[in-house]
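As a warm-up, study this chain.
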Amino acid sequence: MIEDDVIRGVRAAREEYARLHGFNIRAMVADLQARDSAGDWLVVSRPARRPHSTDSPEQTLQTGAAVRRCVV
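Now compare it with the structure written out below.
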């Protein structure tokens, strides 16, 4: 398993949060729900992205606009 500074920092923060709540999962959930309902963090909302169109033959066939070729 890879151990780096970020992983160690996340694990330390998780351990500290659990210790503050006496390692009681119900107390941690109640705290997180209270923080969520307080609405003290920024929520960013963006419009949906439009799909990128390509002119590949696979996409042309999927959309039903197949190109007909005349063979003489």
